[in-house]
Specification:
The complex is a heterodimer. Chain A is mostly helical. In chain A, about 80% of the residues lie in helices and about 0% in strands. Chain A is globular and about 70 Å long. Chain A starts with 5 loop residues before the first helix and ends in a 10-residue tail after the last helix. By secondary structure, chain B is α/β, with parallel strands linked by helices. Chain B has one domain: Rossmann fold (3-Layer(aba) Sandwich). Chain B is globular, with a radius of gyration of 19 Å. The C terminus of chain B is likely disordered. Classes of the chains: A mainly alpha, B alpha/beta. The interface between A and B is medium-sized, with 21 and 28 residues.
Chain lengths: ~250, ~300
């Protein structure tokens, strides 16, 4: 694999340089990379930090998986069969504009326990983008392929399985990328407001404790785990879509 | 099992009867009569080509026999049974390649038997016979146009259909590939006992392949004339240059251009210029003229109308 790493490395080094420059000039409060690195080295072996990271990861992946398992079939069927769309979409479209963060007060009041509440918020963040992309995928299926399948003897179920699902998969995996990103976004917001644990809470308590370096440590940890989950979805994408020679995703 | 390689056909599977078939699209001012009161009888095991300009309703006729389109009036029966929807006994090869992009060539060819719960034993020999063995694990987007149509033909043959319906399957191919595919189709068809209906706007193709050529008129689409092809089988590349083909081509071209604009007729090269050493110049531009290329022969476009339905 002769991939050229110069470009990506330059991009990351550029960000680092910009950060350092800003910290040294206009925003003196911003801890410089060495300071943050020291703080990170300090905290990385700390069990409470480690459990924060694990907690956040669980709070993302479990609701994300649930959202995908629900949103993909609903979106796909609604895109493929008009009656399913009529049954599901009006109600979902009404709920969709509510930002998941706006659910937090109601969730705190109505859902007992921190974990289910936060996971519900994360779930909402992932659910709608996955749903909408699966829906578009279902609608965009070239019906000529379905005609070909029918002429070859496929019934409704096997046409859906062999034509509907694979034809919609590129759109579905796009939804998974977006859903994963929004799951992290809403997780951090929920943890800051209601957390008690997790990386979002860690970052927020660093703020209330006035520890600038640890704020940045929290931010970068979230970034690293977020990037890792993008790679995970990318693996899934390539495994699901071997027939697509080039992928638009990283 | 009888096949076209044997002289007598005792199997009567695959008789297609089209009675008073009409198909109208749209309503009011946008109403288009694609096919009007069309009658056609195709004998079991016969190879019939349907020749006509784009927009003459020949694709609609094929769609009605395939069961993808419901006739407005009239009906299609196969062996006495009215057609009410698609069926694997009536296989279709489409103009644009309709191989499933997410399946390998092998999976595509095995698709019919697999979804029908039949044995896939014949898939490998079929891939072998169609020269696809080396591409069995490739995805369709890795195939050339000719290979893709070969794979699509193999996918149809894997179902052992009683009727093969082909809608200009070679029109997107370059001339050399197209000519090779025509001969390959004939040899593949000979190994079956299937009835074949092949839609084309290429006169030479219609003659080379068909036992009979059905010439259709446009707007409304109906049968103008049916011509027997006096050519022995098996046919191959050499058949293109036979006297019978040349004469029949003259006849069919005259029949088609009968209707076309005078301006177009005056642009035709004299008959003596059409030598068999350049079959492409004979079939291709002419096919385009009555078919697709609007800017080169604007007058012909008026005649053909828009869209092939």
């Amino acid at each position: 694999m002769g991939r050229d790493w110069a470009g990506p490395a330059g991009s990351l080094l550029g960000l680092l340089a910009l950060w350092w420059l800003l910290g040294a000039t206009v925003t003196p409060g911003l801890p410089t990379p060495p300071v943050v690195a020291a703080a990170f080295a300090d905290v990385v072996g700390d069990p409470s930090f480690q459990s924060s990271a694990v907690t956040s990861v669980v709070r993302v992946y479990v609701p994300f998986a649930l959202a995908a398992m629900l949103a993909v079939p609903i979106g796909l069927l609604a895109g493929w069969y008009e009656p399913v769309a009529d049954l599901t979409l009006p109600a979902l479209e009404l709920l969709r504009p509510i930002p998941p963060i706006a659910w937090i007060p109601a969730v705190i009041l109505l859902i007992p326990g921190t974990e289910p509440g936060i996971m519900f918020i994360t779930f909402l963040g992932a659910f709608f983008p996955i749903l909408l992309n699966a829906l578009e995928g279902g609608r965009g299926i070239d019906r000529e392929y379905a005609k070909a399948a029918r002429s070859l003897g496929a019934d409704t179920v096997s046409t859906f399985r062999h034509v509907g699902v694979p034809a919609a998969l590129p759109s579905i995996t796009t939804g998974l990328y977006v859903g994963m990103g929004l799951a992290w976004l809403n997780l951090v917001a929920a943890e800051m407001l209601a957390g008690g644990s997790g990386l979002g809470y860690h970052t927020w308590s660093a703020y209330t404790g006035g520890s600038y370096p640890h704020i940045v440590v929290g931010m970068l940890s979230i970034a690293a785990l977020g990037a890792l989950s993008t790679v995970t979805v990318g693996r899934l994408d390539r495994w699901l879509l071997p027939w697509r020679v080039s992928s638009t995703h990283p | 099992m009888s096949s076209h390689e044997e002289t007598s056909t005792t199997d009567s599977r695959g008789r297609v009867t089209v009675e008073g078939l009409s198909k109208t699209y749209g309503t009011g001012d946008g109403r288009v009569v694609a096919v009007d009161d069309l009658d056609l009888e195709i004998e079991p095991g016969e190879f019939v080509t349907v020749l006509g300009p784009s927009g003459c309703g020949k694709s609609t006729l094929l769609d009605c026999i395939a069961g993808h389109v419901e006739p407005t009036t009239g009906q299609v029966t196969v062996d006495g049974e009215p057609v009410s929807g698609p069926d694997p006994s009536r296989g279709v090869v489409f103009q644009e390649n309709r191989l499933f992009p997410w399946k390998t060539v092998r999976e595509n060819v095995a698709f019919g038997p697999t979804v029908r719960g039949r044995s896939t034993d014949r898939v490998e020999p079929l891939l072998e016979r169609m020269g696809l063995s080396g591409f069995a694990d490739s995805y369709p987007n890795e195939l050339s146009g000719g290979m893709a149509q070969r794979a699509e033909l193999a996918r149809l043959l894997a179902n052992e259909p009683a009727i093969m319906l082909m809608d200009e399957p070679f029109s997107g191919l370059d001339v050399m590939t197209k000519q090779r595919m025509q001969v390959e189709l004939l040899s593949a068809w000979r190994k079956t006992d299937a009835t074949a209906l092949f839609v084309t706007h290429d006169v030479e193709e219609a003659i080379l392949l068909g036992d009979r050529v059905v010439v259709m008129t446009a707007r409304p689409g109906t049968v103008k004339t049916v011509v027997d092809v006096p050519l022995d089988r098996p046919r191959d590349h050499g058949s293109r240059t036979s006297e019978a083909v040349t004469q029949l081509k003259e006849h069919l071209l005259a029949s088609i251009h009968d209707e076309a604009d005078v301006e177009f007729a005056t642009r035709e090269p004299p008959a003596s210029d059409r030598t068999m050493s350049e079959p492409s110049s004979d079939s291709e531009p002419r096919g385009d003229a009555v078919g697709r290329d609007g800017h080169e022969v604007g007058a012909a476009t008026q005649y053909t109308g828009e869209g092939d339905r």
